[in-house]
Specification:
Elements (H helix, E strand, L loop, with lengths): L5 E9 L9 E4 L2 H4 L7 E8 L4 H22 L6 E4 L7 E4 L5 E8 L3 H4 L5 E2 H4 L10 E3 L4 E5 L1 E8 L3 E8 L6 H16 L25 H11 L16 E8 L1 H14 L9 H20 L9 E9 L17 E9 L9 H14 L4 H18 L2 E6 L18 E4 L2 H4 L2 E5 L7 E8 H15 L4
Parallel strand pairs: 6-10, 13-15, 15-17
Antiparallel strand pairs: 1-6, 2-5, 3-11, 3-16, 4-5, 4-9, 7-12, 8-9, 10-11, 12-18, 13-14, 17-18
């Protein structure tokens, strides 16, 4: 894809309509604090639609801007800033009337079809479709850091397609909230900005729905400060010269076959074997095995590998949190598994059992367990152990994001190149399968692909 270049045609700021949102200070909840460590979230939506440059500029772009402004009126925290004052004051989100998000308009010289491919492809190309991170400002008189929370880029592939790219700080919103925002934007665009025709639910921004009787927020802020109060500093050098990415699809039939195979291999009682459990177990095993091959078992002295699982808590686990809550409502666990056991032929089964057991444990004490897992995170990062996390979820239904041009031909989580996570979503085919995005150096990806293809053959 070396022919692909992106030229920025316009850069502007988009804000809610004037005087439509009052100045608002939003405190972080304990579920927000966790994500202060996280790199910016980057996602692209690729649409195959034959807009000419003139048609896009004259008809599409003005409506995209207006509908975005109206969407931001509902989701105004995205326009605010992550305010990080000196201690003892707490970090928070501050929105002032007139605050805005960075909006870039660009045009690509490449072919849209190259970005729709699932095969191995250069990681760097896709990063041209998301906006750069707006800089943090420091107010000299108070030493307060102000960090913008969202930026948007729309890239035209003339007579071929359109890409909507977003980049945002996880501290302000989780995947469910961000997809709710983009779907709201799409719905308003489809309605030609007639708000009376927009049926999508309003977000619930009241932070009071996240109860914290045990003081988890204070404890987690303490962990954050003890670790040097880091917020993610993006480093373009983190993209290796030979980094590639690919999308792997598992059909519903293949997933059900995995469940039956794992169940037959495990005879130690009832198992929780969801599509998430068996898929992530299989991918995790393939990643560790491929890493061992390309490093000649250089990690043989690492005793444990870790998997960070996260689940949405809206209206689950006895928590009365509405489905439309805007913010972070994710809790999880850390699954640790002996590295040596990944070498065993049938290790997918015990790995799946370990993940399933951890998912089951969420039913009892989801919040307390999450606090305990979070307290271990800095230590795990500094230990040098292998840690895998997941970005996205099939429950986001991201392929339902329709601006009136039909469903996206492809949705990608871009930042997995930087975070080392895998991405997980529903299959665009609508067949009940799953799509998994993976990004590693080229050699490991080639070996991983081989393990993936061979591994599917064992589940019979």
């Amino acid at each position: 894809m070396s022919s692909h270049q992106v030229k920025v045609l316009e850069q502007c700021q988009i804000s809610p309509p004037p005087d439509s949102v009052p100045t608002t200070s939003l405190p972080f909840t304990f579920l927000d604090v966790t994500w202060m460590f996280c790199c910016p979230i980057q996602r692209i939506f690729l649409y195959q639609v034959p807009f000419s440059a003139a048609q896009f500029t004259d008809q599409v772009l003005p409506r995209l801007k207006k509908s975005l402004s109206l969407a931001l009126q509902r989701f105004f925290p995205f326009c605010g800033n992550f305010v990080c004052p000196p201690q003892p004051s707490e970090p928070h989100i501050l929105y002032n009337d007139g605050d805005s998000v960075q909006f870039l308009v660009a045009q690509s010289t490449g072919a849209l079809s190259e970005f729709l491919s699932d095969g191995l492809r250069d990681s760097k190309e896709i990063h041209t479709l998301v906006p750069p991170t707006p800089p943090t400002r420091i107010l000299d008189d108070t030493l307060v850091e102000l960090t913008p929370l969202l930026s948007v880029q729309v890239t035209l592939f003339p007579n071929s397609g359109l890409c909507i790219g977003i980049k945002y700080r996880h501290t302000v919103a989780d995947g469910m909230s961000s997809i709710h925002f983009v779907k709201t934007w799409a719905s308003i665009f489809q309605a030609n900005c007639d708000m009376s025709c927009v049926c999508i639910s309003l977000p619930v921004i009241d932070r009071g729905v996240i109860e914290d009787p045990k003081g988890n927020k204070d404890a987690m802020l303490g962990f954050w400060r003890a670790w040097g109060s880091p917020t993610w500093k993006e480093d373009a050098a983190a993209l290796m010269e030979d980094n590639v990415r690919a999308t792997f699809t598992l059909s519903r039939y293949e997933i059900e076959r995995m469940k039956k195979w794992v169940s037959a291999k495990c005879d130690n009682g009832p198992l929780h074997l969801s599509s998430f459990v068996v898929t992530t177990a299989f991918i995790w095993v393939c990643l560790i095995k491929s890493l061992d091959v390309v490093t000649n078992n250089a990690s043989k002295d690492v005793a444990q590998c870790h998997f960070g699982l996260a689940v949405d808590c809206r209206n689950r686990f006895g928590l009365a949190i509405p489905d439309t809550f805007f913010g972070n409502c994710i809790a999880g666990r850390i699954v640790s598994f002996p590295r040596g056991k990944f070498k065993e032929d049938d290790c997918v089964a015990p790995v799946a059992a370990a993940i399933g057991h951890s998912v089951q444990s969420l039913d009892s004490g989801v919040v307390d367990g999450y606090r305990n897992s979070f307290s271990k995170w800095p230590e795990l990062h500094e230990s040098g152990d292998d840690i895998l996390t997941v970005a996205g979820s099939p429950k986001l239904a991201q392929y339902d994001t329709n601006f009136g041009w039909g469903k996206p031909r492809k949705v990608e989580v871009v930042h997995i190149d930087i975070s080392g996570s895998i991405s997980l979503s529903e299959s665009r085919n609508g067949d009940g399968g799953l799509e998994v995005g993976v990004a590693r150096n080229r050699r490991q990806m080639e070996v991983f692909t081989s393990f993936f293809q061979q591994g599917l053959n064992q589940f019979v």
